Request: fold
Amino acid sequence: MSGIVRDPPAAPGSRTRAGTRPSARTRGVAGIDPGRLPGTGRSLAAPLLLGVAALLLWQGAVWLLEIEPFIVPGPLAIAGAFLENLRNVLDAAAVTGANAAIGLVVGGLLGVAAAVASAAAPVLDRLAAPMVVALSVIPIVALAPVLYTMYGADQQATRQIVAGIAVFIPVYVNSLRGFRQAAPVHRDLMRSYAAGTWQITRSVTLPSAVPYMFTGLRIASSLAVVSALIAEYFGGPVGGLGKSVTSAASSSNYTLAWAYVVGAVLLGLLFYAVTAGLEKYFSRHTARA
Amino acid sequence: MNEAHSDRPAAAVEVSGVDRIFRSGREEVQALRGVSVTVAAGEFVSLIGPSGCGKSTLLRLIADLDTPSSGMISVFGKPPRQARLDQDYGIAFQQAGLLPWRSVRGNIELPLQTHGAAAAARRERVDELLAMVGLSDFGEHYPDQLSGGMQQRVAIARSLAESPKLLLMDEPFGALDEMTRERMQNELIRISAETGCAVVFVTHSIPEAVFLSDRVVVMSPRPGEIRDVVDITLGTAAARGAGLREEAAFYDAVRLVREALHGAEPAAVRGAETR
Amino acid sequence: MNEAHSDRPAAAVEVSGVDRIFRSGREEVQALRGVSVTVAAGEFVSLIGPSGCGKSTLLRLIADLDTPSSGMISVFGKPPRQARLDQDYGIAFQQAGLLPWRSVRGNIELPLQTHGAAAAARRERVDELLAMVGLSDFGEHYPDQLSGGMQQRVAIARSLAESPKLLLMDEPFGALDEMTRERMQNELIRISAETGCAVVFVTHSIPEAVFLSDRVVVMSPRPGEIRDVVDITLGTAAARGAGLREEAAFYDAVRLVREALHGAEPAAVRGAETR
Amino acid sequence: LGLTGCGGSGGSGEEGAAAGELTPVKLQLQWFAQAQFAGYYAALDQGFFEEEGLDVEILEGGADIVPQDVLASGDADYAISWVPKVLGSIEQGAAITNVAQIFERSATLQVAMADSGIDGPEDLAGKKVGSWGYGNEWELFAGMQKAGVEIGDIELIQQAFDMNGFLAGDIDAAQAMTYNEYAQVLETENPDTGELYQPEDLSVVDWNEEGTAMLQDAIWADTQRLEDDEEYQATTVAFIKAAIKGWAYAKDNPEEAASIVTGAGSTLGQSHQLWMTNETNKLLWPSTNGVGLIDEAAWEQTVEIAMGTKNETGATIISEEPPATAYTNEYVEKALAELEEEGVDTRGAGYEPIEVTLAAGGN
Amino acid sequence: MRMGGRQERMRPARLLWGLGGVLIPVLVWELYKALGPAEGVSVGGIPLLPRTTDLAMPHTWTMLARLFAPESSAAGAVPMWAAVLQAAGFTLAIAGAGWLLGTVVGLGLAMLMQRFRSANSAVLPWIILSQTVPLIAIAPLVRRWGSQLEFGPFVWENWMSVAVIAAYLAFFPVAVGALRGFGAPEKAHVDLMHTYALGWWQTFLRLRLPASVPYLLPALRLAAASAVVGTVVAEVSIGLRGGIGRMIVEFAAAAGGDPGKPWAPIFGAVVLGLAAVGCVALIGVLLRRYRRGEQAV
Ligand SMILES: Nc1ncnc2c1ncn2[C@@H]1O[C@H](COP(=O)(O)OP(=O)(O)OP(=O)(O)O)[C@@H](O)[C@H]1O
Ligand SMILES: Nc1ncnc2c1ncn2[C@@H]1O[C@H](COP(=O)(O)OP(=O)(O)OP(=O)(O)O)[C@@H](O)[C@H]1O
Ligand SMILES: Cc1ncc(C[n+]2csc(CCO)c2C)c(N)n1
Ligand SMILES: [Mg+2]
Ligand SMILES: [Mg+2]
Reply:
């Protein structure tokens, strides 16, 4: 039940017990691991081509059908607005990005800490299960208004908390899974060394869980941005991408609104890329061994 | 019990009348029944038996990774727990069980580090061990950069790190292909001779058990009992070369173990067999 | 090529001068070099060799799961692709590879179903096959309710579903423990004798290869070449009982294969071995 | 693409009322159903639209619904929106026209606690000032600018759908509509007194008094269709007529109007709804020249502020004068004339608001 | 992930634990409210713990009591809980439609990507990118585009726009999960299908689809939660009447005078999310057979 926000089952290696033959691995399975996706320039060409094609189609439609900008602006116009308002977009992105980053870090740390606690004391896990499920299904919009009241409408904190909650769930769930993932053989080994609980935690449990934590963090990364952004919708100090999008849209300046949306997309991608990179770095050995 | 043995040199392992019953929910599984066996210091003993007969369970009891339901175990005259705390044994499993985020050196170092050995001493000991398993050039590699056989050698080096007088090995070569496996067997013979430690070795393979051991303990299907103990008289470990595998004495021993293993049971398929 | 053979009974498998080179990025791996081998109808041939020597690759080429870089392969005088489309062979892998969501019956039925056999005919054939592998009572069980040996028997039944005249097996008993393994070998001997199909059998185990085969093809390390072909003269398959494993002739054959396998290569550890 | 919206399909003009063949009309509001739109709901409920030969469907708004865009893209026939918001849209290319300025006065306040020391816009400097954004902020900015307070001098806070930020002290001066948020405060218990907040507890900045009021709720129509489509022109007059009748009904029967709105699906509490009806009435009545007639001076003031007031990013609502098509009194004059003929009071000279007592929580 | 018989048997115990998990937060809430400072706890200007005023943190019994009071003072008003449940049901229905649409689209995309490797690498980054576009930017667009649609008797309704927006969030986990699941069969199984001379479609039906179930179920669960979030946001965004989203906004305004009121739709949202996830769990039970692999191997 607590696996609501879980990434599909783990990377290769954890499933098969006998799958240690090199030949069984070199061939790999068909399909991809989205976790390792927007890696480096491996196959940037194809998605870029598709993107360019889509943009051309869009721009063509805007031209040919003479669509008014207040219905759908064309990509060229959006790009123009983006460049023209670069300062404002960057300022807004900085506000939203900072909130998302703080939410990501704090929510991530708390998620890991809670997972450590739950792994150490399964009682906690069972007690937390209903809360975790509730938090994971509750729409942010439902929480944001009461959170503003609880923490103060003049604070960025509420947005950070909203982002933090969104981050907490996947990080907690994945980390907990990671802590349970520590191979029994490794636990036995440490026990045979007469190692203490802390030594076992430090040498085996934590490192085994690290890739899982980062998987959770990657899933959470764009959630953090989107959540921080939606929270702006419900209050807090003025500034930020969400407020800018709605503000521009409410005066029908959709070109500008989409310029801010582009900012949001780039910010989301940045967060995703950074966490995906971290994930890749931290699972460079574990993924294969 | 330990007192009784204190005046003569303690056996490496002494197991007497051990039962192990697993309870999970309503079910009860008797894994071991009345198992008694003694491993002398420096002796190489293999445990062989059908899958699920309790070989691993017995090994885990000796290593104090599990406790018997009844019966007594002593390791070098001490309770297993004390032996574990004193690091009297090293252990290796079927899966090499290396920590993938540590280099080869880091893995071998692990037990030393856990016990707070100084960095310099650790370094020296690891170099020694790397040389012993022929991996001096691979200290900085990571497990995923090694072949299965090399990983298993690292695991053996790790189990030897504290210079234990007892080595516990649970199918350490089970995942290797036959050629690598034979090579590893040769190495193990050499190492156990060099270090003079006693070995309790779990395996499925009759030729492997015969090639390596001074004695082969044959176990019956669950509930695991000791069905027979076959003494192997193929000469000292140091004298066993690769050529041994082609000698008639070797084949005779293999046949003896096979017969002990298959026992009274007919070789035909048991249709109702389930896990 | 097929024409050349059309007037005499086609061999089950004919491989001549086959190379297989894998390219991945800039790297090139030559898995097979100039491999030629013929398997007569009804013949039991084992492939043995060190890990990575191309045994599986060769089997996959025959099964048309892969295509040779150069050279020719024919199966019953046809190109492998045609043989595959005609369902001329059955295949079994190391992992039993049963679909966990299908019952034993469902698994065995699978090839029949995909080729549109009528339900009644399917039922009958599956009953027959279940009886053949001694699992008549287990048709409605699911794979996870079976032991490894039973699963492997289901896989064999499945590979026999279409009554192929050729069975391709890639280490089918690799994951089993020794006792179960020996039992499965006895069964396979019986089944192959009963159905009269040719078998190409990949294994790592010398005794297994010797026990089962009419001929053992020994391959060299990568790039895989055929180093030797050992004829085993232990009598017809039907005549091979469990007792055979204890006979001197058996040990002689084992030694022959071992020598062929280890060849000129020293038995010492190659320190620089990597994957 | 675009098959809807061409509303006046087979209508038989203004005379067709009796014939039963009604012209379908969609009206897009700028928020959920509430007494702010009481006149339209009353007109619907009382059959005024039907009398004019119209079959009106009222489309509620939402947080991201921009009524003028719904109108401009042809998904509605008329829309209710604030003039300054629409001026921006017009500059972005939305071809729509103000055909009736329903609200004569602005309802936007900036509310502070009486003891906060905020008595006018000049006191806002250094304070935490709330605003909803969404184009609701321009009067505030204009008032501040007029009083010499720059946006950089205040801490601008995005206000939520509630007044909690103000009540909790996070916002020193909060934006409030007389008819809604101001009442929300008065429905809340004052922790100091244990009673509901009283008007004396609050200090209110009214933009009407500060001279930076902008025109609010107006009926907007499609410019192109007004030019090309005679039927639409007739429908527009009919629509304005019925709407004004509805508002007159709300003036005379505030209780009934409030319950009509509640019946239309508003979940606001009873006393709150009545308060809103009453306050909204005050925005129309008494009317200087007849409800809906666009006052040139007020329009000019709105446009001037729209061109001269900068927001936090330094942008103004519009950069040039709106086109002449941005408003017209042609239709509302016709409507008023016809109403006069029918004896409907379109000025409400003797209008007296009622007294509404707010209950806790607006219930 | 594993749901062996062991867990099945533990149900009653799990329920008890769950109850504890509900009671403890209630206790913590009241305890903190009783002991915590009214202005909350801030460190260096950063608020760490919330305010404890009745406005910020109403008593749990205030919230509970509000649920049993009538929704409004109007004559004939239903109790709050009934109104909330009705709204939750309304939202659930739309979320269900969105979930269904998202699942179909997600599965379709995953099939496309599984079938054509080039499609895979070209499409996947865009799928990831799509989720970084804020919903609030899309909601009005969807409504506007939707309202342009009209074929014959079919008229686009606002609730359909909401469902489409929900689908926009829901399709993502399904696409990623299904893609992974379709790639999950072991090589040996794929080879086996090849030796049976089966085409892509047959292989898909007999192997990839059933093999993907263990991957698909968590994805569907996540999609259900996302669909609920999407529906609620979209309800606010385009102002659809009848659901929880609109109720949240409308009731927020009453917070000052009626502090328990805004919490009612929040509980509704939780119930709604749990119901959605529960429905997917039901699917999991129906597909039990295809989850044997989780225990076997
Ligand atoms: N923790 C446990 N709980 C319950 N049953 C257990 C546990 N550990 C082992 N068993 C059971 O005890 C029996 C002996 O297991 P054990 O692992 O010792 O066998 P083994 O001889 O090592 O088999 P293999 O050759 O397959 O490794 C088996 O039936 C096993 O299922
Ligand atoms: N698809 C592939 N791409 C690249 N290299 C491959 C591929 N398949 C096999 N190889 C390489 O070809 C060589 C032969 O592989 P193969 O699996 O046939 O060996 P094998 O004899 O079956 O080994 P094992 O006994 O371990 O199963 C190996 O070096 C392997 O790494
Ligand atoms: C996102 C958003 N938040 C708050 C309001 C509140 N508000 C400000 S003016 C106004 C007019 C109609 O009452 C209303 C409701 C809004 N409109 N949109
Ligand atoms: Mg074991
Ligand atoms: Mg192979």
Q: What stands out?
A: The beta strands of chain C are 13-24, 27-39, 44-48, 70-75, 89-92, 166-170, 198-203, 215-219, 226-231. Chain C touches chain B at residues 50-51, 134-135, 137, 145-150, 177-180, 182-183, 186-187, 204-207, 242, 245-246, 248, 251, 255, 258, 261-262, 267-269, 271-275 (CB under 8 Å). Chain C has nine helices and nine strands.
